[in-house]
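Crash report, auto-generated. Payload:
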Amino acid sequence: MSGRVLVGVKRVIDYAVKIRVKPDNSGVVTDGVKHSMNPFCEIAVEEAVKLKEKKLVKEVVAVSCGPQQVQETIRTALAMGADRGIHVEVSGKDYESLGPLQVSKIMAALAKKEEAQLLILGKQAIDDDCNQTGQMTAALLDWPQGTFASEVTVEGEKLKVVREIDGGLETIKINLPAVLTADLRLNTPRYATLPNIMKAKKKKITQVKPSDLGVDLTSRLQVLRVDEPPQRQAGVKVETVDDLVSKLRECGRI
Amino acid sequence: MAGIHILRTSRLRSTLRYLSRFSSISLTARPTTLSVNLCSRFLSCSHRHQVHAGNDGQKVSPSAAPQRLSFSRLTQDDLAFFKKVLPGRTVTDPDLLESSNVDWLKSVKGSSEVLLRPETTEEVSQILSYCYSRNLAITPQGGNTGLVGGSVPVYDEIILSTAQMNKILGFDSVSGILSCQAGCVLENLSLYLEERDFIMPLDLGSKGSCQIGGNIATNAGGLRLLRYGSLRGTVLGLEVVLADGRVLDCLNKLRKDNTGYDLKQLFIGSEGTLGVITAVSILCPPKPKSVNVVFLGCESFQKLLQTFQLCKGMLGEILSAFEFLDSECMRLLNTHLKLANPISDCPFYIVIETSGSDSTHDEEKLHNFLEKAMTSSLVADGTVATEDAKMKTLWSMRERVTEALTHEGFTYKYDISLPVEQIYQLVTDMRSHLGTQAKSVVGYGHVGDGNVHLNVTSPAKDPALLASIEPFVYEWTAQRQGSISAEHGLGLKKRNCIYYSKGRPAVALMGDIKAMLDPKGILNPYKTLPDDVR
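Recovered output after restart:
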């Protein structure tokens, strides 16, 4: 196999940030909140760069959908070793309602346009936990899929994929072109080293509109309400074992 | 002649039982050669032959435990009084006392028989007033994370723990002034403040256990000193209980107050010897909106210093930390903690943190700095992190060195302040001086503040190695007008080394102040001031 790999990267709220719900319950607060690349997307980028280093692919293209800020995320992918980036411009209301169905349509269109041999995505995004985009894209392209991949080996024109499943590990062989979704144990993403960060500034990011790809962004979903999970009640500290026993009796536990 | 403090370990108990068949051993018996050997095993910093002082003309080891002063011993009446003032919070169970009697490094152990846990300043005042009248010695204890043996008793001093004094009294979000009791754990204060978009002005590796009262009594430095300054600037007020129980309320919450002598400065860094800090008001900086962490590798210490200068020039006001570690530290992190090097192997590594209010502005400055550093070959390799998880990982390369060292066996720790250019020379000279005697000799620390943590490891306690290190390290430091304890304080272990960094008239005046504030010397005896100032 020697060709182009497309890697989808998503800009999400950093996992360490405390999420706050907007006062009007329409969503979560994103303004001024720290964002970063979805951790599973990082693993996807790392895998793509590894394939390039093994000379199994010629070019790694990082793709992200969203407003201007997603270019930061694409730059991070470039700093990790991707060759160029594609920024699919989606903003405003369209961005708020952007979900796996629309993204998979965009990815499918790009995969065809770029004549990609392989599409690698993270298995799910940590903001919506959908775990759908990879699978939907494969269906739209009618390509085989290796999801929850924890190990990928190239065998000629086929891929051997070890998948993490409920019962353990499943090994499958799929034809190329294919879609892979990266699971946690696939690899450990590298630190972008300074020389690469400097080089990344000069790498190209092309802007594309969804309409250029013939994709309709209308959503079939409407978010009615977003609420915080119920507050956890504080525990009670007791001084002695006797206190503990009597308190347990009080609330009918014993 | 010195009575030896015999530590109650089960090994020693059985030995004493054996010996008691042949003679009567008491705690203040004249030491025989046998007990010298026993004690040298338990007293971490004592030299094999130099544990006892006196008429036999042998030299006293500077860190050896001093003779027990003539404080009263605990009686049942005393316990009854404490139990009345602190019901349920007077601990006498030996198992519970065990951890409070030993320091974090497990290098010194006391034999206190009672641990008190007051909740209010009033209770502390009653306790001290009583102990003053009864001539009972007290060791105030916060998080017990000190590294110089200052937070645990030497003999049977009563442990006064501030652990239950953990209430936040108030926070003004306009001025950023936080008031809290002395027993608040630093990390808890940080979490409280972060929810309100502020941060504590200090941060250290022991944040999960150390308490703000102890931090102030030590005048802790930490990782943010470069940016936010020392506690001497950020602490606005203190409430302190004096040795005789009087409550000194200097807990003002004003940024500026020039009415009379600034008493709180006496207590900051006094290591619990002038008064017990019970409440604090501290100025907190706003939480930075944009934080970046950079991990760099340099070929030489000279290049590291030049990088520091470039950093100050180009990053200026957004620089919030500049720490270094050497390749030996990296080796220990790789070997003992399985932490991989984020970049390629270099002789020196730097951790730089920037904190600012505008991420675009900060990142641009940072990128310009990094580009300059790379193109002028000051820096051989590096990486940048903007996400929390990655930043924590990069910081752990510096913060966990202390932990990695504990896996080597026994560590001799030195915390030295020197002119910045000379910091690493100490490590290099120590390495050639010790040769193969030591397992590892490492240097790391707050290079931005001119403070190096020199650590020498050996598989087990090695008195010969100690004899090679001390007084060489102190003399080396004194020759360059450095400080033999930059931020750790003097505690028990370094009290007699004070003369390497302070002249006799200054130390004598310290003694006068101690005598004035604590005439009976009941507050944390045997600590901070040298034995000859009593």
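Post-recovery validation: Residues 359-375 of chain B form the longest helix (17 residues).
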